[in-house]
C-alpha cells in the first residue's frame, strides 16, 4: 500500500461552527420555529429574466398548502414539495382550491404558448401563484419559488413579495457526462439529473461509447457487453493484489436501466441525447468485433487516454452493425437528436487499409476526409429515415455535411461559427471555456484532471452567441453545454467536484438573458446555492472556497505571506493557531510575519465561512521545499500538462502528480542554492498510458546513460548544465516512491539564485518517473 501523499479535501461536511452565525450557543427550546428571512435580493440561480419587487412578504410554514388544478399542475406541485422537503424538512400538503394561505400552481391558457418553458411567479402577502402555458414552464416556476424559499434556512421562511416573468435564453441547456472512461451508477446519474433540473438544464448528453469501453446493452451483439464493456486498467490498478489475477474495469447500462434513466430525466423535463461515437473512438468495439475495424487486427479494449487510431471500416456488414445498433438506440432514446461523435478520427488506418482504399475508389471518393463526410451523410440519411436528427462534434463539418445536421463546437467556437454560417444548427461547448475535466483552481487539493484552468468565471463569462454572426446566423445557436470527460475522474465524488459549482455558472449562461449576467452579483448568490448542494448531499468542490497562501522569505527570519481566495471572496485570518471567525481580521494586504508562522484563513460571505479554514504553517525548512504543484514545467514543454494519479493501490486513494507528458521536467525558478549541500528528491512512477496519434513525434526524453536512466539536476534552467546526477533504480520501493539525495557541488561565491530543473532520463514508456517533492538540504 502506498501512503496517501496528501489529503484531497473533497466533500468536507461543514461543521455548524463554520456555517451558522448562532454557533457556539446552545439553541433555546423553541415551541414555534423561528421565521427565517430570505434575503431581500433573492439568491436565484440562474437569474430570472425580470424581477419586480412588491410591498410586503409571504410567510411559508407548515400551514402553507399547495393548490394545483389538473394533472400537470399536480405533478409540478409534487416535485415542488419534494424540493422543499429536502431543504426545509417540511413536505407541504396538497389541498383544495379554497385553502389558505396557499401556493397555487396553474397551467394558464391565457399565457403566450409560443414561449416554451416560460412562467410567471407572483408572491403576495396573501398567497403565491405560479403560472405557465405548459408543464415545463410551470416546473421552472416551481424551481424558482423553491429557490426563493431556500435562500433562507429553516422550516418557516418569509419571502419578499415580487413578480417574476421568466423564460430561458436558449432551448439547449446541456451537460455531457462521459460514462465510457469511468462509469457511474444509475443512482449517481439520477442524482445528477435531479441537480440539472433545479439548475434549469434540460439536455443530458450521455457519452456512452469510446475506445475504453462500450456502455449500452445491445442484445444482438453480445460481445459488446462481454468484451467491449471491460478493460484491464494500466499498471498496478489492473491486478488484484491478493490473487495476482487481472482486475478488469467493466460496466454497461442494461436496456431497463437506460429506460429508467430516460423516464427519470423526462419527469424532470430533461432530454437524454445518447452518443455512439464513430468512425473513431471505436477501439472497444473493434476489440469485440475486429471485422468492423479497418485493419482486421484485434486490439484490447484500450486502457490508455488520448487520440487512438482505430476506425470502423466502410464495408456493408459494418453499416449493418451500425444500423442495428442505431435501431436499438432510437428505440431506447426518444430524443430528437442522436449524437454520432465524429471527433478525432485520425485517418491513418483508412490510409493503410487496402479494403478501405478499394471501397473509396469504388465510390469515387477522393480522400479520407471526404470518406468521413460520406460516412456521416450515410448516417444522417439513416437517422432521418427514423425521424431523428444527426448531431456530431465539429469535425463532421470537414468535407461537407447535410444541412439538417447539427454541430457541437468543441475546438473553440470556430467550428460553431463556420457551421452557423453554413446554415447548420449549433451547440456551443468549447473546450477552453466549458470542459469540466480542466481544473477550476490552482489549489494542490484539486483532484486529477487537466491543470489548465477553467475557472468558475471562465464558465460564467462564456458568451455562446459569437458577435461575428449575422442575426439570421445567430438563430442557429441552439444553446450551450458543458462536458465532463472522465479519463482522470475515477470516482463519483471527484466528478461532483468537477461539476459543482461550475454547473451553476453554466446554468446562468444557458438560461439568463445576456444583459442579466453579472459575475460579481452571481458570487453573492452562490452561497445559497452551496447550501442547496449540501441539502442534496452534493460533494461540490471546496477548492474555490479555500484560502491559498504563498510565502516569500525576507532578511533574517522575516517573511511575507500572501493570501488568496480563488473566487475573490473576503478573507479573514488568524496567526494565533485558532480558526478564524467573522470577527477575525480581514485580509487586506500581504502579512509581514517572522518565521515560523502559522496562518489560518477562511473565505467569508458576510459572516458565513464558505469552507473550513485553511491552515498554512511556514518555517525556514518549508521554504526550502517545493512540490510538483509548486514547480513550473520546462519552457517549450508546456503542452498537455496533466494532473495524474498513481496506478496503485487498485482501491482507495492514490498519490497525484502534475506532469507534462511530452517531456516531463520540473522547474524551480529562482531557487536559492547558497549554503545548500544537496537536493533530496522524492519521485513516484506512473504507467505511460497515452495515445498521442500525430502528436507522438513531439514526445521527448533524454537518452539514458545507465540501465534505468538517471535523475539529472540542472541549474540555469532545463537547458542548463547538469550539476548533479544519480542513477535511478529499476523500480520504486513498495510504497511507490524513491528518495534520492543529490549532492551539489560547492559553488562557493558563485552559488545564489538559479532556475533549478529536475529531469529523469530514459524513455517515458512504459513507465515514467514523476516528481513528488524536492528539498534543499543546507550544508
Ligand atoms: C472531444 O473532446 N474529443 C469532443
From TrEMBL:
Gene3D superfamilies the record matches: Chitobiase/beta-hexosaminidase domain 2-like (3.30.379.10), Glycosidases (3.20.20.80)
Ranges for domain Glycoside hydrolase family 20 catalytic: 170-513
Mitochondrion is among the record's keywords: no
Domain GH29D-like beta-sandwich positions: 558-607
CDD domains linked: GH20_chitobiase-like
Enzyme Commission number(s) of this protein: 3.2.1.52
Enzyme type, top EC level: hydrolase
Annotated signal sequence range: 1-21
UniProt domain Beta-hexosaminidase bacterial type N-terminal: residue ranges: 42-167
UniProt cross-references to PANTHER family, sorted A to Z: BETA-HEXOSAMINIDASE, BETA-N-ACETYLHEXOSAMINIDASE
Name recorded for this polypeptide: beta-N-acetylhexosaminidase
Species lineage: Bacteria, Pseudomonadati, Pseudomonadota, Gammaproteobacteria, Lysobacterales
Amino acid at each position: 500500500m502506498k501512503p496517501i501523499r496528501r489529503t484531497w479535501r473533497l466533500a468536507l461536511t461543514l461543521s455548524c461552527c463554520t456555517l451558522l452565525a448562532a454557533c457556539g450557543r446552545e439553541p433555546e427550546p423553541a415551541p414555534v420555529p423561528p421565521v427565517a428571512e430570505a434575503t431581500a435580493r433573492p439568491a436565484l440561480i440562474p437569474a430570472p429574466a425580470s424581477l419586480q419587487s412588491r410591498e410586503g412578504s409571504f410567510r411559508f410554514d407548515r400551514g402553507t398548502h399547495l393548490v394545483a388544478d389538473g394533472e400537470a399542475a399536480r405533478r409540478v406541485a409534487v416535485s415542488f414539495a419534494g424540493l422543499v422537503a429536502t431543504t426545509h424538512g417540511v413536505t407541504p400538503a396538497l389541498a383544495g382550491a379554497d385553502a389558505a394561505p396557499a401556493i397555487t400552481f396553474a397551467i394558464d391558457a391565457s399565457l403566450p404558448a409560443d414561449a416554451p418553458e416560460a412562467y410567471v411567479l407572483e408572491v403576495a402577502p396573501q398567497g403565491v401563484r405560479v403560472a405557465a402555458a405548459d408543464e415545463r414552464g410551470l416546473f421552472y416556476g416551481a424551481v424558482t419559488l423553491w429557490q426563493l424559499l431556500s435562500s433562507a434556512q429553516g422550516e418557516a421562511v418569509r419571502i419578499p413579495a415580487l413578480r417574476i416573468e421568466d423564460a430561458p435564453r436558449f432551448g439547449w441547456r446541456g451537460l455531457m457526462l462521459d460514462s465510457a472512461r469511468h462509469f457511474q451508477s444509475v443512482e449517481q446519474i439520477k442524482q445528477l439529473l435531479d441537480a440539472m433540473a433545479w439548475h434549469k438544464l434540460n439536455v443530458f448528453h450521455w457519452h456512452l461509447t469510446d475506445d475504453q469501453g462500450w456502455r449500452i446493452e445491445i442484445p444482438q451483439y453480445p460481445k459488446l457487453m462481454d468484451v467491449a464493456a471491460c478493460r484491464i486498467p494500466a499498471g498496478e490498478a489492473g491486478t488484484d493484489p491478493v490473487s495476482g489475477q487481472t482486475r478488469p474495469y467493466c460496466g454497461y447500462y442494461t436496456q431497463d436501466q437506460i429506460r429508467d434513466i430516460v423516464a427519470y430525466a423526462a419527469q424532470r423535463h430533461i432530454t437524454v441525447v445518447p452518443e455512439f461515437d464513430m468512425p473513431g473512438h471505436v477501439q472497444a468495439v473493434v476489440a469485440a468485433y475486429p471485422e468492423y475495424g479497418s485493419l482486421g487486427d484485434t486490439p484490447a479494449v484500450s486502457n490508455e487516454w488520448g487520440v487512438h487510431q482505430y476506425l470502423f471500416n466502410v464495408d456493408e456488414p459494418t453499416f449493418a452493425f451500425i444500423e442495428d445498433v442505431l435501431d436499438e438506440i432510437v428505440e431506447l432514446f426518444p430524443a430528437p437528436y442522436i449524437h454520432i461523435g465524429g471527433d478525432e478520427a485520425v485517418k491513418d488506418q483508412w490510409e493503410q487499409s487496402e479494403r478501405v482504399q478499394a471501397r473509396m475508389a469504388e465510390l469515387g471518393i477522393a480522400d479520407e476526409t471526404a470518406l468521413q463526410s460520406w460516412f456521416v451523410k450515410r448516417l444522417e440519411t439513416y437517422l432521418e429515415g427514423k425521424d431523428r436528427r444527426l448531431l456530431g462534434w465539429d469535425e463532421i463539418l470537414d468535407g461537407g455535411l447535410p444541412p439538417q445536421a447539427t454541430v457541437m463546437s468543441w475546438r473553440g467556437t470556430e467550428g460553431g461559427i463556420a457551421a452557423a454560417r453554413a446554415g447548420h444548427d449549433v451547440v456551443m461547448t468549447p473546450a477552453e471555456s466549458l470542459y469540466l475535466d480542466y481544473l477550476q483552481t490552482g489549489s494542490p487539493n484539486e483532484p486529477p484532471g487537466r491543470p489548465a484552468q477553467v475557472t468558475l468565471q471562465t464558465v460564467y463569462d462564456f458568451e455562446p452567441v459569437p458577435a461575428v454572426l449575422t442575426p439570421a446566423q445567430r438563430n442557429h445557436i441552439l444553446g450551450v453545454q458543458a462536458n465532463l470527460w472522465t479519463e482522470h475522474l475515477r470516482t463519483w465524488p471527484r466528478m461532483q467536484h468537477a461539476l459543482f459549482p461550475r454547473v451553476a455558472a453554466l446554468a446562468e449562461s444557458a438560461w439568463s438573458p445576456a444583459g442579466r449576467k453579472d459575475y460579481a452579483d452571481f458570487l453573492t448568490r452562490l452561497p445559497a446555492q452551496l447550501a442547496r448542494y449540501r441539502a442534496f448531499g452534493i460533494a461540490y468542490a471546496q477548492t474555490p472556497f479555500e484560502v491559498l497562501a504563498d510565502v516569500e522569505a525576507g532578511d533574517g527570519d522575516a517573511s511575507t505571506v500572501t493570501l488568496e481566495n480563488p473566487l475573490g471572496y473576503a478573507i479573514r485570518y488568524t496567526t494565533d493557531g485558532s480558526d478564524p471567525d467573522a470577527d477575525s481580521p480581514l485580509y487586506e494586504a500581504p502579512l509581514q510575519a517572522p518565521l515560523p508562522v502559522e496562518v489560518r484563513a477562511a473565505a467569508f460571505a458576510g459572516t458565513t465561512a464558505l469552507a473550513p479554514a485553511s491552515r498554512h504553517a511556514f518555517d525556514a525548512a518549508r521554504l526550502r521545499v517545493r512540490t510538483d504543484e509548486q514547480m513550473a514545467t520546462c519552457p517549450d514543454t508546456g503542452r498537455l500538462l496533466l494532473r495524474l494519479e498513481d496506478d496503485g493501490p487498485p482501491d482507495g486513494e492514490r498519490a497525484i502528480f502534475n506532469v507534462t507528458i511530452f517531456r516531463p521536467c520540473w522547474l524551480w525558478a529562482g531557487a536559492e542554492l547558497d549554503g545548500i549541500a544537496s537536493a533530496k528528491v522524492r519521485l513516484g512512477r506512473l504507467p505511460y498510458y497515452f495515445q498521442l496519434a500525430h502528436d507522438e513525434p513531439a514526445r521527448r526524453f533524454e537518452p539514458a546513460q545507465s540501465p534505468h536512466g538517471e535523475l539529472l539536476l540542472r541549474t540555469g534552467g532545463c537547458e542548463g548544465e547538469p550539476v548533479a546526477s544519480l542513477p535511478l533504480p529499476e523500480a520504486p520501493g513498495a510504497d511507490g516512491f524513491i528518495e534520492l539525495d543529490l549532492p551539489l557541488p560547492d559553488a562557493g561565491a558563485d552559488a545564489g539564485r538559479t532556475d533549478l530543473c529536475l529531469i529523469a532520463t530514459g524513455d517515458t514508456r512504459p513507465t515514467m518517473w514523476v516528481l513528488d517533492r524536492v528539498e534543499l538540504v543546507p550544508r
